[in-house]
Amino acid sequence: MPKKKNEDVVEENVAEESTKKATESGKDSDLKAPKTAAKLEEEGDIAADYLEALLDIADLDGDIDIDVENGRAALAIVGGKLSHLVGRDGEVLDSIQELTRLAVQTSTGDRSRLMLDIDNFRANRRTELTALAKEMAEEAKTTGGSIKLKPMNAFERKIIHDTIQDLGLTSESDGEDPNRFVVIYPA
């Protein structure tokens, strides 16, 4: 199964804030342990069943790959003509991912952080955004000024933040969804 490294910064920030608040308040009982590999595999199986049913209803072909990476279930639908399931700028993909997360939550009773990729959209977008982050980091170093990027979703912002951090610079998100954007600062 192909591995994809996808993360959602919004969910991670929420998890970090919850952990911080629970720790500060001394309520360690509010903290949940990370999900086991078996739990994540179960989420992947439930999600795959849901997606398979969705593909059947829409009479679409596609294979579903299931994996566990970075502490979450990761699914990919490949093959067939699936670009319309991605939509403009991944909007349909984001919606299908959210519906799949809800289906898993309904079945397990636990919130899911699963990631879905269709037609390699997220993998390709990761490559594009990594290149953009490197280019903008170089511009920030050269000019000595901050660089504001166009609005992006949480997945896209996370890629930018990770790349900028790897390059030794800093970045932060600003604004409110759907117009939230990344600002890159020189060293």
Please tell me about this protein's structure.
With 187 residues, the protein is of the alpha+beta class. It folds into two domains: 111 residues, 2-Layer Sandwich (GMP Synthetase, Chain A, domain 3), CATH 3.30.300.20; 63 residues, R3H-like domain (Ribosomal Protein S8, Chain: A, domain 1, 2-Layer Sandwich). It has five helices and six strands, in the order H-H-E-E-H-E-H-E-H-E-E. A three-stranded mixed sheet has the order 1-2-3, with helices on both faces. Strand 5 and strand 6 form a beta hairpin. The longest helix has 23 residues. The chain is elongated and about 55 Å long. It starts with 8 loop residues before the first helix and ends with a strand. The N terminus is likely disordered.
Major β-sheet strand ordering: 1-2-3
**What portion of residues is helical?**
40-55%
How many structurally independent domains?
Answer: 2
CATH class of the largest domain: Alpha Beta
Task: Tell me which CATH architecture of the largest domain applies here.
Answer: 2-Layer Sandwich
- Assigned CATH superfamily of the largest domain: K homology (KH) domain
Biggest sheet statistics: 3 strands, mixed
Quickly give the structural class. Answer: alpha+beta
> How far is the N terminus from the C terminus?
39 Å
- Tell me the CATH topology of the largest domain: GMP Synthetase, Chain A, domain 3
Oligomer: single chain
Shape: elongated
Number of strands: 6
